[in-house]
Structure prediction request, 306 residues.
Amino acid sequence: MTGADVLLLALGAVAVGAGVLVVTTKHLVRAGLYLVVCLGALAGDFLVLSAELVAWVQVLIYVGAVVVLLLFAVMLTRAPIGASDDLDRPGWPAALIGGGAGLGLTALLVDAYRWSTVTLPHAGTAERLGEQIFQSWVLPFEVLSVLLLSALVGAIVLSRPDIGRAAPHRDGTAADLVDSEPGGRR
Amino acid sequence: MRPVIPYVTAALLFGLGVYGVLRRRNAVLVLMSVELMLNAVNLILVTADTTARAVLPHSGQVFALFVIVLAAAEIGVGLAIVLQLYRLRATVAVDDVPLTESPDPVTGREPAVVDSEAGR
Prediction:
């Protein structure tokens, strides 16, 4: 056991423990905060595994942006503040499939790698990863930028209900837009 | 460095994500569980980058970056869908959504909203 192993074990235990709390807690907001702990521990894992750039991107995008978006959604859907009992469905099929997937993958990977050791490669700094992305992976990179743009447009179209309904309204056949506004229905 | 430790961590996290997706009723919690699964895949990719010596160096880390971008796009669209569901139904419980009905083509109004309001 080297120092890297001890660090990986500790961070992995933190990540799995926080993951358990994410899927079992009865507090909606606390689930988001436990998710921060889990993602932060995984970022530490990435650092130990010499993936510097991925670790900082993980902190920036996941902990900084995705969790904040999730907490915004918790607030916008008027989630209860305290503990709520109706967050779960009956558990045994989920436990069966989830436990089967997790333990099956664990058995597969333990059988494949046993207790072998590898030496860590060069650190994945921004310079090395940038060389790889812009030499070998330029086309997927560009496709991803198109995908991000389409996701942005899709999210805007989805969250504005007046965009999709503008066409029938122009014919005069649809109900007026004020009636179909979401605010009037609550 | 023993690669079995992060691999087992990733496998357990993936199982937890599967469990959360199937167990949770709240759509926001389902999205959080999906994030857990995507992060398990990221950990697998980064660990594989250290264990396997590929022709192109650091391919696993590049793929992990790509997966992070995909997750960001997924969470944006997913939250837009969840908020739209909340606007239509005033609930985000995923098993309250019947999959068999279609919205009224003229007004675009969901028939179940009227039914559920009359039922209460």
Q: What stands out?
A: Residues 70 and 76 of chain B are 10 Å apart (CA to CA).
